[in-house]
Write a structure and sequence with these properties.
Number of helices: 2
Shape: globular
Largest sheet: 7 strands, antiparallel
Distance between the termini: 29 Å
Mean pLDDT: 95
Strand content: 35-45%
Number of domains: 1
Number of strands: 7
Strand order of the largest sheet: 1-7-6-5-4-3-2
Order of helices and strands: EHEEEEEEH
Structural class: alpha+beta
CATH topology: Alpha-D-Glucose-1,6-Bisphosphate, Chain A, domain 4
Low-confidence stretches: none
Length: 145
Amino acid sequence: MTSKNQIDVSIIIARSPSEVWGSVEDIKSHTEWMKDASAIRITSESQAGEGTQFECDTKIGPFRLVDKMTITSWQVNRVMGVRHQGIVSGWGQFSLEETQSGHTVFRWAESLRFPWYLGGQFGSVIARPILRWVWNGNLRRLKAS
């Protein structure tokens, strides 16, 4: 899954993939380490796994929106993927890979499309370095948690 709008960030965390997964599998807990996520509400009966739906109140600078997402991939200790279906659309994925030393490479990839009133493709280009900066900070907080 690669696109021209894709943003990739990663970090090495000195814990096993199963320990890191334990920190991210509870979707509602993402607000503890994602500075841009102020609230998460599960909107489906399922709380975890493929098909789980949720809304995330997202804020970056002066911009506020409700991001509607559905879990599209759920491989315990390995992959969590989402489809964005709100004002901003696209996909996102966390992937966890064990290093030879037993640590985890945590990768976060997103490909987002902005509506015309948020600048469309131009808005996406402008947002890319800002989102990369925000998400790198999120990964540092996840690592410290």
